[in-house]
Amino acid sequence: MKYYLEERKNPNLLCIIIPCYNEESALPFLKERLTQVLKLLSMKTEIIFVNDGSTDETIFQLVDWSKVDSRIHVVSLSRNFGHQIAVTAGMDYAKGDAVVVMDADLQDPPEVILEMLAKYREGYDVVYGQRLARSGESFFKKTTAWVFYRVMKILVHKDLPLDSGDFRLISRRCLDALNGLRENHRFLRGMNAWIGFPQTPVYYNRDPRVAGETKYPLQKMLKLAMNAAVSFSPLPLRFSLGLGIVVAIIGFGVGVYALFRAFQHFILKMPIVYNPGWATIVTLICLIGGSILISIGILGEYIARIFEESKGRPLYVVEFVKGGTSLKRK
């Protein structure tokens, strides 16, 4: 897609949003690296840490950091609401002309922010980090991630960038559009693609986690994939329709075959073995029953999401905010 771009200056205020869940071992390394990067930035900055119900010492480290650095703000949620909701909470509180979303594990190098700002000055509203390599990850992790992004591109949005996570820079007008989308089951990468605006990648090599364990094992990645597919696409429903058609065709074919064998045995008196078969009946029952259960399960996922949205509950609950009296939800 071709974009009309107008050059602009650096943002007057850059906000960096970092969700944290049990990152006590990574925070000292993050503090050192991030402090060095902030020295290279020529604009005013604020960093919003969102504590997503951590059960270790994360919140104490964050509050202590906010006491010695006025740029650090801490939004602590009342429990663990999940990564996508934690990022959403940070975006609700962000006041910057541009916002960067990154994780605390330093797999996405904060130095890339400088490249993102260069693209921002060119006029792009979304600058996302696209990974060229994933260091320190197993073959299984790399393979499942490769499959995940390509399946999501099919199910979620044709413009969804491949091999790109939530590490990105977002302009103010894009952020305001995102904050207007308040669905409970969130897939921010898909939402960024859906709202449009000029978007471009910056390429980088993803580093190993500096400390701690991954917060996105296979189980959570599958859950995120299911949530994204059902929230953004009717394809699962169409899959159940297609499955029903295939099972009906198979059943029709088996029925025709059974009638043909009966015709051979009873009408033509052909010397063939004909056993009015339990195997055929059992096969048809399994096919039809299985397809019905799959279809009901897929339909149930959509109904469950309608039920969740109809409650009208807030996306998250804030326990407290530290590190600046001016930090308020927009």
Describe this structure in words.
The protein has 330 residues and is of the alpha/beta class. Helix content is 49%, strand content 17%. The protein contains ten helices and eight strands. The chain has an eight-stranded mixed beta sheet with strand order 7-5-6-4-1-2-3-8, sandwiched between helices. Strand 1 (13-20), helix 1 and strand 2 form a beta-alpha-beta unit. Helix 5 runs parallel beside helix 8 (218-232) and helix 9 (235-267) packs antiparallel against helix 10 (278-311). The longest helix has 34 residues, at 278-311. 32% of the residues are buried. The mean pLDDT is 79.
Keywords for this entry:
alpha/beta; 330 residues; eight-stranded mixed sheet
Summarize the structure.
The chain is α/β, with parallel strands linked by helices and 330 residues long. It contains ten helices and eight strands. It has an eight-stranded mixed beta sheet with strand order 7-5-6-4-1-2-3-8, with helices on both faces.
Low-pLDDT runs: none
Overall 3D form = elongated
Supply the number of helical segments.
Answer: 10
Give the helix level as a range of percent.
40-55%
Q: Let me know the number of strands.
A: 8
Strand order of the largest sheet: 7-5-6-4-1-2-3-8
Give the biggest beta sheet: 8 strands, mixed
The Rg value, from CA coordinates, equals 26 Å
Question: How are the SSEs ordered, and which strands pair?
Answer:
Elements: E1 13-20, H1 27-40, E2 44-51, H2 58-68, E3 72-77, H3 83-93, E4 98-101, H4 112-122, E5 126-134, H5 139-155, E6 164-171, H6 172-179, H7 188-195, E7 199-206, H8 218-232, H9 235-267, H10 278-311, E8 318-322
Parallel strand pairs: 1-2, 1-4, 2-3, 5-7
Antiparallel strand pairs: 3-8, 4-6, 5-6
Helix pairs in contact: 5-8, 9-10
